[in-house]
Amino acid sequence: MLLGKYHIVIFKEGRSGSRNLRMRGWFCFTAGLLILALIACNAWLWRAWLQARHLDENLNNAQRVIEEQRRQIVNLAGRITGVSQDLQRVQRFDSKLRMMMNMEKDPAEVGGAPGDFSRAYLPLHRQELAARKMQDFLSHLSESVRLEEVRQQDLLRALRENRDALASMPSIWPVVGFISSSFGGRSSPFGGGGQFHKGLDISNRMGTPVLAPAQGAVILAARDGAYGNSVEINHGGGIVTKYGHMQRWAVQPGQWVKRGEIIGYIGMSGRTTGPHLHYEVRLNGVPVNPMRYILE
Asked: Could you tell me what percentage of the chain is helix, strand and coil, using 3-state DSSP and rounding each to the nearest 5?
C-alpha cells in the first residue's frame, strides 16, 4: 500500500481546471528519508561546530595562561638571578675581608651559585620542568644564604677583635681614576720588552688629591729617583704603601695620617709618560696586588 501509486490533484482558486501529479510510493519514501538525513546531518554539523568553537576558545585561553606563566617564570628567574648575584658579591666581599684579616678561607664559597639563571630558562617549553629546576635552585640558594650567615657571624667577631688592624688596612682607593696599568706583568711603556709592574697606575688630571687609604705613619715624603715625588706610609703589620709621580706631597715624615686624609696630588714627576699615581702595597717588603685590600 505504502509503495503503491498516488495521484495528487491540485486545484487553483478562482480558476477552472486542475493538475494531476502521479507519484509512486517508493519515491515519496526515499525523498522523506533524504530530508530526514539532511536534517540529521545539519544538526550533527551544527553540534560539531559548536564543540570545535568551544575547544578553540579553551585552547586560546590555555595558551594565554601558559604564556602568562612563562612570563612569570622568566620574571621570577630574573629576580632569583639578582639575588644570586647579590649573594656572590657578599661572598667576594667576605673572602676579601678574610684575606685581609688572615683568616682561613671557607671552602664553601668556592663553588658559588649558577650564573645567568633566567637566560638558561628562556627556551624551555615544559613549565613543569622549569618549575622543578627553579625549585632545586632555590633550595641551593637558601642553603648558601644560611652558610653565609654563619660565616658572617665569624667574620664580625674577628672584626670586633681586630678593629685597629682593620683601620690600618689600605681598604679604599687612594684616588679616583682610570687604571692605566695593572699589577703584574706588562709591556714596558718606554720600550725594551716586558717587565713586572709592582703596583697600580691610576690616571687622572694633574692636581687631583691623593688620599691615605688607611691610618699610619709617614716614613717618606721626598723625591725618590724614577718614582719622582713620593710618599710612603707604614700602616703596621708589615704593610707599607707607596705613592709615586706626584705633583707635590702634603705630609711630612713622622706625621700620623688617618684614612681619607690628603697626602699629595697627582702629577707626572719622575719617569712617566703622563699624569697618574703609581700606587704600591708592600707586605713585609714584597709588592702585592693592591686590589687584594681594596673593598670595592
From this structure: 45, 25, 30
